User: Fold these one by one.
Assistant:
Number 1:
Amino acid sequence: MKYILGLLTTLIVLAFVQFSFASKAGEKVKQKAGETVDATKEYATSTKKEFETKLNSELEELNGKITELKEKAKTSGKEAKAEVQDQLKELETKRQDVSLKLEKLKKSSGKAWTRMKEGVESAWNDLKSAYSKAAESFKE
């Protein structure tokens, strides 16, 4: 009986020690997971800001080029002027679309940001294509 009682006591002590180690390991895992989440958020925020800054810069540059096209349109002939005006209206519409989407993107986060980023990139590509088309018409 003493033997069984001693064995039982030993098993209880071992179980307690095991539980204590497991608890400490669990706390370390929680801490590491928290650090990983923080690092991921920081990276995503950094990436978002970089994207927004880059697109803002490119949009400002393209706005200057669009202004130049508008100035050239003022000096073009009547026939060319009508065609160019249509292209400039399309450019302005697409530019406003990109600007609005970029503003919404700045206010978004997480999965919404990822989805919206794709929409902004698509609108940006449309704007660049429209600009290229309009710029080509001045070369002819």
Number 2:
Amino acid sequence: MTLDSLPDGIHEGVPDAIYHQRLPVIANKSLLHALARSELDAREYIRGHRKQSDAFALGHAIEHRLESPHTFGERYITEPDFGDCRKTGKGLTKDTADERAENRARRDAWREANSHREVLTASDWQTVQTLGEHANADPHIRAILDAPGVYQATLLWRDEETGLRCKARPDKWIPSMGLMVDWKSARSASPRGFTQAIATYGYDLQAAHYMAGARACGWPAERFQFVCLEKRAPIYPVAMYRLSSQFAELGEARRMELLHRLRHCLHERTWNGYTSAEPDGCAVLEPPGWYVYEHDATDEDDWTMEVL
């Protein structure tokens, strides 16, 4: 099975490995976010050269804990402490070498027996379990978790304006609420912290892309909501957010700009660096708003000192 062989529409049960295939090119939020950094980043994403980060793997574990807590232990496990397994080191004697060899043998046998499961560190295991407990303890988030819905369905559609094929995979769709939900593990779940994360990681772009997919596939999704889980021990706070209409409009405008840019790159087979698309290879930089504000404030302070 490949995504290219599936018709446009809604598909349940598509394996992760199939959904995350990079070729043929199907525009998803990760590819568009890579393109927002640079065309070269997008090319490397398509080629599959970008490795999944530890944060990405932890996020998947948190998703599983929320969506299927009863099977979490079947897929994830934390590795016991087998003691010193080093082959070299100071103070190595025959006795310590034998002890370490036994430790390695026990460790390797354990890993072989659990090769079908994903291993979390003890710290990550504690984080995932505690976040799951805190999410269930929040009555509003618990209502989202308990509501009947569809998890991890694959949406496939063709963008009418650019002709590009697109895909999306919402964490949960709740038909009775007209709601799509996305779980987000975050450094900060505060309004200010998560707003910064939206700008940094392109979550507004993601929301726009998923909502476009829902409309194209006939899903009655009226709202997109983030369930945020802060990975800060020992309190692990949780929160829920949705974007304002202005935020959502900015995300959709950026999504369309990136789709047009992606179509151009694919058609021309050209992937530019930061400034190579400029006529002379050199771009002009403008001062950011905060820099202008600080400069103006400094000038005002200097003028005040002169008057005094």
